[in-house]
Amino acid sequence: MLDKLITFFRTEAVLCIAAVCALASMAFVPPDASYATYIDTRVLILLFSLMAAVSGLKECGLFSILAQKLLESKRPMRLIALTLVMLPFFSSMLVTNDVALIAFVPFAVLVLAHAGQTRHLAWVIVLQTIAANLGGMVTPIGNPQNLYLFTYYSITFGDFLRALLPFGVLSLVVLAAASMATGGGSTDVSLPLSLSRGGTKRIALHGILFALSLLAVLRVVEPIVLLAVVVCALALFDRTVFRRVDYGLLLTFVCFFVFAGNMGRIEAVRELLEACMGTHPLITSVAASQVISNVPAAVLLSGFTETWQSLLIGVDLGGLGTPIASLASLISLRIYLHVDGARIGRFMLVFGAANAVMLALLLGLYAILYVV
User: What is the torsional sign of CA 160, 161, 165, 168?
Assistant: First the structure.
């Protein structure tokens, strides 16, 4: 029993922290009717639907097959590294940063082991992690905090792109250069991968559900209609996907909705956060992300500012830095730790240096665009 609890705390650390924060806040603001107004059901429905559709596509083996097609035949190691890094960068824009890393970090381990290039593994995984976080920031569905803020502030798609596209372009250039700096030589990549049984029909089903989810994000389809379609489709054609949805992330959002709502009703806390967000919204957002990660930081701070651009950019850039700044970074770390010969010290050194450099560059771009 104790071992199971320890395992749960390790795998759902952020959920446990969120639950503790929510319970602690209840001591200051006892439960009442106002609690019902804290929960943003639209965000929860969109997250559930997107996670279900993407989980179905991943189970079909679609992502691995597409990656294999891009890498098959003999190629220079620099080009292999570039492909492995660009896969999570661009895919995260559609399937979220978490899913991109779950799909492509194990694939990178497989490819580099097959090619006898495991000495580059830490470097490539670190770049993949940064790529997923920064590629995902370019679209409303790329990162969970983006989806929340896009919905919370009713941001238009055009305004969203104008705010974040410059940071995405700079990230792409820097990551491409860093990938091409990987050691030379050529290797042949040929892996026995195939679609799962019934893969074509499942891809069609989940592709349609994913398209409907995108329409709901863009406010073309009502969330309640989307939820009804997704639940009915999965119940009739692919019930196993219900078990693949990350309910821990949904519960984490619920807990932080409660925590953020209660913090907004405590006068001293409200005045402090309003002051910080009023004078230094970007720095406050980046700093908060380093401590509690960028998803809860977005939920907490959104109630204290109308300057959505600085908050949105801050929590997205705030995913760089410490390993807990972004939930996705912990996914990469866990996968790397299970690799034979993993060197955690070297990985953390590379992770810290690469994140610091990228964060400094992007903060410099923010200063040029918004301060100077």
Answer: positive
CA dihedral 115, 117, 123, 124 (to 10 degrees): 0
Tally of CB atoms within 10 A around 290:
18
Higher per-residue confidence, 108 vs 316: 316
Q: What is the pLDDT of residues 265-323, one digit of tens each?
A: 888 888 888 888 988 999 999 998 887 788 888 988 988 888 899 999 999 999 998 88
> At CB < 8 A and 24+ separation, what contacts does 213-217 make?
213/46, 213/49, 213/50, 213/53, 213/141, 214/141, 216/45, 216/46, 216/49, 217/46, 217/50, 217/140, 217/141, 217/147, 217/150
Taking the complete model, does pTM exceed 0.90, yes or no?
no
Burial of 364: CB neighbours in 10 Å, binned 0-12, 13-18, 19+: exposed
User: How many CB atoms sit inside 10 A of residue 78's CB?
Assistant: 16
Both tokens assigned to 264: 């907004």
Contacts of 187 by beta carbon, 8 Å cutoff, 6+ apart = 74, 75, 77, 80, 115, 116, 117
Best-predicted range by mean pLDDT (44-48, 164-168, 236-240):
164-168
Condensed to tens digits (0 to 9), the pLDDT of residues 114-173 reads: 777 778 889 999 999 999 999 999 999 888 899 999 999 999 999 999 999 999 999 999
Element (H, E) at 310: helix 308-317
* DSSP per residue, 211-262: HHHHHHHTTSS-HHHHHHHHHHHHHHH-GGGGGTS-HHHHHHHHHHHHHHHH
